[in-house]
Amino acid sequence: MTCVIGSEQLRRPAAAALRILVVAGAYWLGGRIGFTERVIVDGSVVTPLWPPTGIALTALLWRGISVWPGILIGALATIATIGTVSVEALAILAGNTLAPVSAYLMLRIAGFRPALDRLRDGVALVFLGALAGMTISATAGAGTLVVSGSLAAHDFWTIWAAWWAGDAMGVLVVTPMLLVLRSTVRPEVKREFFWTEAVVLAVVAFAVAWAATRTESSLLFLVFPVLIWAALRYQLAGSAPCTLLISVLAVTAATSGQGPFEDRSMLETMALLQALNGACALTGLLLGALVTEQLAVRRRIEEACVALAGVVDQLAPGETAHLWPLPGGPSSEGEEPLRRA
Q: What is the pLDDT of residues 3-48, one digit of tens each?
């Protein structure tokens, strides 16, 4: 018994250390991906989409506050791969760690559910997880650059806005996508059309997003019908991948100056890009959560009606046979679910 208890006590710290290392590795990998599409704004490097914030918040939602050292280690490794770890870098490191931790704590207080099956969960992720939480990292980053002399004071708000938007987009785009992978909520689509429609949706989403972000004409609005289609038919499982796809194609087009981003100043490009990414993320996330919630309510109402009909049928056998398609009774397919007596 003593040996069993001893081995169990050893496994727990080992498992915790492994989770921290996995979070650190995922954060670092997300940072490397984010830096592939960086831009220069007023002499400072910013990323239009910063995936590590979404990865960090998702890790906290999955495993709790105990994995915060992994965020710290991953942020430190990310900074070390692009420059020296100075005192200024440590301040930025603290901001990058505190931002997702603060966002997680606010979401916990708000009663957030990672399944994102309620509209209130989508609203909480947008306003608490992304918009409010990421002000910490943006303030720490831009403020540190000003204090160190790397950034002029009058450029503080420009860099702050770009930093905040990139971190917020990481939460709005990456976190829903990762949460979907572990969600127990499945989209309600008839099985015979599930994969066929999914393939068609994927092809149409890529074609429309590519055309909208590569054509000089202002056709960015074309992506919204696709997002609505994905959310209505597949809920968050459809809207989250579509949002990620659109955001990635938009970021690559913006950083290379293609399509509607051609011949624009960097500030105009960043404003247009973040407006598009923000609108897509809000549309897909909130509509997907709303549809999921409404379907769940309808399902509970139907279950309650069937249960009530069963009770009535026990009290008055045969009286409800012509009103409700009870289990074991006649199939409701091809018949009206409710007929007037």
A: 545 555 557 788 888 999 999 999 999 999 988 887 777 667 778 8
**Tens digit of pLDDT for each residue in 287-330?**
999 998 888 888 889 888 888 887 877 777 766 555 555 444 44
With 0.70 as the threshold, say if the pTM is over it: yes
- What is the three-state SS of the chain? CHHHHHHHHHHHHHHHHHHHHHHHHHHHHHHHHHHHHCEEECCEEECCCCHHHHHHHHHHHHHCHHHHHHHHHHHHHHHHHHCCCCHHHHHHHHHHHHHHHHHHHHHHHCCCCCCCCCHHHHHHHHHHHHHHCCHHHHHHHHHHHHHCCCCCHHHHHHHHHHHHHHHHHHHHHHHHHHHHHHCCCCCCCCHHHHHHHHHHHHHHHHHHHHHHHHCCCCCHHHHHHHHHHHHHHHCHHHHHHHHHHHHHHHHHHHHHCCHHHCCCCHHHHHHHHHHHHHHHHHHHHHHHHHHHHHHHHHHHHHHHHHHHHHHHHHHCCCCCCCCCCCCCCCCCCCCCCCCCC
